[in-house]
Amino acid sequence: MSFYKFKRGDILLNTLTARPEYNFFIYDQNRYINNKDVISGSYSLNDTNVPPGYVNLYELNVNRASNDLSYPWIYSSENKWLRLSNLSSGSQINLPPGTKIKGSYPLSSSIQNYWFSGSDTSTKLRLESIRNIVNYYKYVGPHNIFSGSIPEGSGWRTRDLNREDVRMVTIPAIIHGGGIKEGTVSLKYYVSGTLQAQLVDENRRGELKQVSGAISANDGKVAGIVLYKEGIILLTGSWALNTYHTENYGPFTDSPRWKYFASTLSGSGISTPSSSYALDFKATEKIPNLTMLTYANRGELNYSNNPTFISASATNVPSTGSLGYYEKEDRTVKNIVSSSFTQTSGSFEKITYISKIGIYDKYKNLIGIANMANPVRKREQDSYTFKLKIDL
Asked: Of the candidates 236, 244, 233, which has an alpha carbon nearest to the alpha carbon of residue 191?
């Protein structure tokens, strides 16, 4: 067996940016992701072991019974404190060394919805926490401001997100990864299955403008903003999307408005049997991958330990005895070079076929195997470069 050491420039670490598309459909108090049906599992309520419309991080504990779940764990040490975020201080202190402390899988999350009423004059901590983030993106578009003047129609108006109705939709990092791709967010509002209006960020400035509205006079109005890196959507649009339908969207019975988008997810028992909602966007997934270059140089790797490499017609029987095991030194290598004539072979040439490449650590422990789709013929005059790639 031949071993080769990677040289400088043979190992490359790259990052691939993927843009997976997500489609959320919200009806009543249910959410559906990418039009996927809920499939009952053999050992769990559903095959993913998470609620419908949720993403299972790492795809762990898929279709496993509740008493047979994998879990993270750690042994306590001799230190007085063991700091784990999901354990209270009372369960961490003075643990005997060697105690196994368990966590829980699967980790899951989905889009969340929060309602902030303008009539509530108290400080809204969840909104206040993103004040600086909203103001930071003011250089992108004038509507990205928490408190101040924003353009409206042919003039300007003053707004304060703490003093008006705001609907917040959050997209967790489990889903958006490294952030939402600019310009891909789309919100659709349906009543009785009919599209009432749609919001898009056509200028990629984080400003969600209405298009395709049932009341065309409202098209072009900015109904909210989206913070792409943070995965947050703020909706303030208060105009009616139609004038013939009313429904209980939470605060009171009213016409459909953008500030009521997906109100059934706000956790207050709201039911809107006639209204449904859709949220589409593209996430950002950064996938690191390792590229390794290996070589089969001219005149190398043309001998094999495979028994079929030796001609079966030759006398290759080893000698054995009480003093040792001896193989013949003049064993004949099988000639597999084809000839233009029948019943004869071509001029002898040592030929091997490379089917696998093993990757070893510095202690020569096998840590990976690359399999060829088809064995590669290696003649003495051939020289090959193999490119191996793996996602980390």
From this structure: 244
